[in-house]
Amino acid sequence: ARACRSDSRREDFSRTPMMQFMLLFSRQGKLRLQKWYVPLSDKEKKKITRELVQTVLARKPKMCSFLEWRDLKIVYKRYASLYFCCAIEDQDNELITLEIIHRYVELLDKYFGSVCELDIIFNFEKAYFILDEFLLGGEAQETSKKNVLKAIEQADLLQEVCCSLPSSLGGVARCHERQDVSTARSSQTE
Amino acid sequence: MSDVVEKTLTALPSLLSLDSQSGAGKLSSTSKLGGLIRSITELTSKHEEEKLINRELAAIKEQVSSPNTSMRQMKEIMVRAIYCEMLGYEASFSYIHAIKLAQQGSAIEKRVGYLAVSLFLNESHDLLLLLVNTVLKDLQSTNLIEVCMALTVVSQLFPKDMIPAILPLVEEKLTNPKEIIRRKAVLALHKFYLIAPNQVQHIHSKFRKALCDKDPGVMTASLHIYLQLIKENPDSYKDLTGSFVAILRQVVGGKLPVDFNYHNVPAPWLQIQLLRILSLLGKDDQSTSELMYEVLDESLRRAEMNHNITYAILYECVKAIYTIYPKSELLEKAAKCIGNFVVSPKINLKYLGLKALTYVVQQDASLALQHQMTIIECLDHSDSIIKRETLEVLFRITNVKNVAVIVEKMLDFLKLCNDDYTIIDLVGKVAELAEKYSPNNEWFIQTMNVVFSLGGELMHPDIPNNFLRLLAQGFGSEEEEQQQLRVFAVDSYLTLLESDTAHLPQRFLQVISWALGEFSYLKDGLEPCKVTKLLAKLLDERNVTSESRSWILSAMAKLSAGPGAAALALQVSERYSSSLDTVLRQQALELLHLSQDPELHARVLPHGAAWDSFEVDSSLSFLDSFVSEALSQGAAPYKAPHQRQEELRQEKALSLEPYSISLPVSLSSCSITDRQSPTLLSMSSSLSGNSNELKAGSSTLKLEGVKRVWGKEGYLHQQDAVEEAAQVEEAATPALPLSPQQGGAESQQTHGDLTVVEQEKQKLASSLFVGLGSQNSTFLMGKSDSTSQQFRRKTRAADSTSSGVSERSSSSSHSSCSDFLHNNLLEDSQNSLNTQKIGVSNGTHEGPVTQSFQTANGIPEEDGEELGNPLPVIVDSDVASIGTETSKETSPFLDAGMVLVQPCSPQTELRDFVQPGSSGITQTSLRSQFPPELSQLPHSDISLLSSDHSLSLSACRAYRDDALLFVIILSNCSQSSTNGLSVQLDCKQLKVASLRGNALENLPAHSMSVCWYALLMEEPHTQVTVAGSVSYRAVPGHTQTLQFTDKLFLTDFIRPLTLSTEEYGKLWLSFSQDVRQNLKLIQGEGDPLRATLSALKEQLQLHIVDIIGSEGIVACRLLPDSPCLLHCRIHGGSLAVWLRSPLLSLPDCLLYYCQKTLEEC
């Protein structure tokens, strides 16, 4: 139990990342994506998820996007049928977290080409890859949309190249090939 | 943008037919995962889903263990396993295969493998160790993508112990030509810093390089590290303020590439990060704050667009402005900004506005007045989080006049609340307010009743404890009033017990029974028999726990003296003397005896005895003989639970040490003790196989080494009951502009026609915001609570009036006697309407450590007059553009007991002003001032701390065996003498054991005086900052303060610990905290081990216990008495050090200095 909130606002030496976890779930309460930036046991994770999904779904549309939950602040936003939900600490900036969610949606949208829930259901690993390029270890890694998508594209290209190459080729050769392709591609786009 | 997304997402139902569209990565409905997902959507019940997934998991299990499964198939299987886990089913059998996939797959399969690992495992999972080699390999790969993947996984989770293995590779990546690699490497180091700070301490210079990186992405990433570093130690990074300001200016000015724009706002995330850093740097530091005023102003101005992201920046900006040293012009703009937030129709902004208000109103309550109508509307808002935050604002503007209304609002909220965390928090706040501002006794008791009923078992145990202490010890007010409070309590509890008690929480029942037991005799005409009957009824209730029963029984024991009560007591004790609960049975028997023997009762439980007369021997020294007898008969020594667990864990744990010493086979029988005791290990390797002798040695080892735990030394830190009377501090906070307000009346007039509803609101407003006007402005500053405050929690009073000196000791060892001292001091100064005096009371110190220095440094108390009135008072009247009446001449503030002291001008200028040489003060002349007891001690160089035109402060550290002496030399470099000097030192992390000469009546021109503080470091810190101030009068009646700061290091507090090898061995076993690391070995002529150890000994004041062959054992202690043992062994060209200590972070901190020393050698 925390002693006093006013104290935690004044000084904070906690060694936790800005974001503690991020959850995506549907209007029916089905979990679509979960990313934990603080070490928790599976049991705790399940409990937190269950509680939060319930609490957030019970909120009315015109209500505040922020929630106090345990000693954390929950920032959530609904996009169509999906809820995006992040946990931060009390002294963090709620509005900027809301914009982090929005930037992530923008990234998904750009990558999938007008994203919908089904994209995320069927290609959730891609959604994870995008998230990892955007947020790393709970902190914003790269906020430029172009740079994030470039990194993802490069890794994806590797996949295409790998698939088309005979498996006898070594990693280095693949690497060179991939870089050629990626430079060609990026010069095209520019 | 969001509209577009929203539109496309709302078109979702039409997509449900699974018509796959063209475009990147559309629905892969043909894959196995697709099949799985679709069959799940077709299901109708949870039960069916369970069956399907279990079938799926069984199939997966079979496939992963089949040798024919290719890596490509494995990748597909992993994705399905992740999906099943997301649905909440366990697939732990696949974890090992995820690691295998990351290890063996080609790049694309690896990617999925790493993703699966990062989703499946967490930092403490054992399997993670298997990933280390894969990560090592990939970090060295020539493939950019593979390196990226490795860095990504490292930044998310990595075993703490294995960081040294990959650290050099990650560091090397900081110079990689690709910015994405540099960026990820910086973030990986950030992660390392978070989980193991001492591992990355040596690469701080590289962080600076990352900050100056040409790529804005890398620079942004490095700010994460800096934010954390500066949070922990702002003083070390003040020199970077200029750079941060310059970066922010460029960002705000739009100098970054357009890529970093977000909705036309330049790099908002970067801006916010910088604002946070600046606010930490500028906090309480005028000169640093001055550097950032301009750029903050510009940020405020630029963020004008009406979009969430600009509001986010504005909010951070406002927060920074209110955190740093205040500037009226900026404060005014920030206040306006908060106003916009609060009145915004957007609920998110309104919330942030309220949140901003919570920290602003403490400094400037007029803002709450301006927005009183909004605040009242928010109190009835349909969204409870808005209500909650509003209560938070109200909590901070509470004073004696509005406490009743505010507490009522808080209790109303509590009654509807069902969230445990909120209840705990709010109940604590209500209790705090009730104690602090209660208008009368009746109200206080009633409020606390509600607190106990609502808080129930959830609330912090301090609340009932404090309440009972308050009832018992009183609060310094009239005896009569205190009796009245007790009678009120008794009355109200009797009424409660007479009605239905089933709903009362256990904690409340305990409070009730204790109070009734102690105080029911105070009420005239109340028969003890009646109370006992009620208690007996309570005792029989089914839902009463046995803990509460025990409280009730002891209350009955206290009441059992009366005539009617005895018979009832007999009845009760008969029933409970056969209880299964032994505690209850014991109490029942005690009750029986006490009720039958009035004389005994009068002796054991006298009415109204002093509360603090009990002495408790917390060291249990009376058991010493019992323990030693038991030990001599062969009993096992006591080990604390954590120690036992630690040893169990160690026995089970895998040894991660490489096999380096080949022990003779015959020694294998004592391999377990080998691991635990390095001395034994060294003996064993030199003994070369005499197993009999060794076994004997190990068994004696276990038998002894007891005294530490049971003996007095083991509890030494608890016994250090150093009573310290504190000094009444001169206004502790930096001067803040205060805008006086004309009171609620003015704003009421502006509202012309009022509907009934509005009238009610107005009424509420006047009751809520009463006391916030200028006539009551004292209450705005929590620090200068006036005497009208009713119940002051003891420790709180000490906190607010004493300097940091007593803060550490007040928590545990303040006797009530010194509390009264505080109170009296405070009361005196307030009654006489003086401003707070620099009254220095005499502190007596009786710690065993500091006996030699025990000197009562009583200083004649100054007349408050001289110090009080003529202080430079900053009254900034135009802050909120109201209440311009109060100008610099008026002194209502002074009358009300508030003094604002102008802090000294920037230190940098001062340093230039007086150099030690220029004013003719040399090291030797300073040293000649040392009293004899100091001059014989080893000490550091004397350095100039701070100076102004009349006074110059120098300091040095003298190393006494039992403490670090922080010596401050005051020299008067002006032509006239200064008067009334008083030195204050403040450092929360250190403990002041004694001080000497910190006040001086008179210091003649060109003369010097020395004062010193004996400091102890009870909790290890690598470095701490001490701050302090000297106040003096150069011109009569004109007090000036000179502030200074200095740094002290852990090494200043390290002393050698002289031990024999055997004692070392015993101690080693009893310590639970250990750390291991390989360090650089000094290669010179002669034995490298001896050379290295003696270098460490010289630099760090260690004691070398013994050196046997390639091993050495070293011991030291952290003042006052925390030992740390080092076991050093030469291992493959480096020095393997193993540190153990009873203190959590001491090994870490000491290791850092060992590392540093050896790097510098």
TrEMBL record, chain A:
It is found in: Cytoplasmic vesicle membrane; Golgi apparatus; Membrane, Clathrin-coated pit. The gene is LOC114769002. Belongs to the adaptor complexes small subunit family. One of its GO terms (molecular function) is clathrin adaptor activity. This is AP-1 complex subunit sigma-2. InterPro entries: AP1_sigma, AP_complex_ssu, AP_mu_sigma_su, Clathrin_sm-chain_CS, Longin-like_dom_sf. Subunit of clathrin-associated adaptor protein complex 1 that plays a role in protein sorting in the late-Golgi/trans-Golgi network (TGN) and/or endosomes. The AP complexes mediate both the recruitment of clathrin to membranes and the recognition of sorting signals within the cytosolic tails of transmembrane cargo molecules. Adaptor protein complex 1 (AP-1) is a heterotetramer composed of two large adaptins (gamma-type subunit AP1G1 and beta-type subunit AP1B1), a medium adaptin (mu-type subunit AP1M1 or AP1M2) and a small adaptin (sigma-type subunit AP1S1 or AP1S2 or AP1S3). Binds to MUC1. Residues 18-158 form the AP complex mu/sigma subunit domain. Keywords: Coated pit, Cytoplasmic vesicle, Golgi apparatus, Membrane, Protein transport, Transport. One of its GO terms (biological process) is intracellular protein transport. It is a peripheral membrane protein. GO terms for cellular component: AP-1 adaptor complex; clathrin-coated pit. It comes from the Eukaryota. SUPFAM superfamilies: SNARE-like. PROSITE patterns: CLAT_ADAPTOR_S.
Automatic annotation (TrEMBL), chain B:
One of its GO terms (biological process) is intracellular protein transport. Residues 780-818, 835-871 are annotated as: Disordered. It is found in: Endomembrane system. InterPro entries: Adaptor_Complx_Large_Subunit (IPR050840), AP4_complex_esu (IPR017109), AP4E1_C (IPR028269), ARM-like (IPR011989), ARM-type_fold (IPR016024), Clathrin/coatomer_adapt-like_N (IPR002553). Residues 800-818 have a biased composition (Low complexity). The keyword Transport applies. The keyword Membrane applies. Residues 780-790, 835-857 have a biased composition (Polar residues). It is a peripheral membrane protein. Its main location: membrane. Keywords: Membrane, Protein transport, Transport. It comes from the Eukaryota. GO terms for cellular component: AP-4 adaptor complex; endomembrane system. Pfam families: Adaptin_N (PF01602), AP4E_app_platf (PF14807). Residues 1055-1159 form the AP-4 complex subunit epsilon-1 C-terminal domain. PANTHER family: ADAPTIN, ALPHA/GAMMA/EPSILON. Belongs to the adaptor complexes large subunit family. This is AP-4 complex subunit epsilon-1 C-terminal domain-containing protein.
